[in-house]
Amino acid sequence: MTSEGLADGPETYTVTVVDSYDLLSALAADAVSETLANRPGAALTLPTGDTPLGMYRELVRRIDAGELDFSQAQFFCLDDYLGSTPDDEASLTRWLKQVFLDPARLPEANVHYVPTAAADPQAAAAGYDREIAACGGLELAVVGLGPNGHIGFNEPGSGPDDPTRVVDLQPATRAQSAAYWDGKADIPAQAMTIGLGTILQAKRIVLIVSGAGKAEIVQKSLEGPETTEVPGSFLRRAGSRLEVILDQGAASKLSPRQ
Ligand code: F6R
Asked: pTM of whole model > 0.90?
């Protein structure tokens, strides 16, 4: 494993490049463990998707082994399709329940669901941000990176001050999402996501990216200009609150650093 802080000052983010997916997953789980060791009732958000599967396996293992107490954490779901409920086949909340929330036996009262089925979704989204604020803000946000540079469902066009809100999904994102259900699920055209602005206020942000297929968007996010075309490019604004964990494939297009 190589781990390096970037050279241009204490306020900058770190990039850690690991040799295996297991290590990437363990480091992401470490961020969760450290956060809850410091503050057992911390508010946190963790992503869905392929990348965090190993992290969730490791978190469940730690909980089962008594190494991690998740019972007081305030878990905020990151994003889900507009109008969906956990009864729908295509529901990230349902995915999260199966992969983590149920095996981790999280008290239902500590889980905050994205209000995708609210009668007034925009108002409910603003309410979700208030709920996060009422818990003291996000202590930790672990996020993945979409092939188009999205963070959560902050699709291209999203900016660094964007609150939690309803967004239009790009066709490529809908196709990426459909693959989680073997292409069989019908993915809605809109979603609700914790806003990039809300994520950027988190006390600790951990970006996990795996695989050479994301090397180019990782390079654009970390070394390209800040642009709404690549929402991931705004993460650097978090400075030292941002930790990037990559495997060799995902890091393969980054410039060499001293
Ligand atoms: C999912 C989410 C997305 C994913 C991203 C990467 O909750 O917010 O931003 O993190 O699309 O997905 P995977 O890990 O499947 O490549």
From this structure: yes
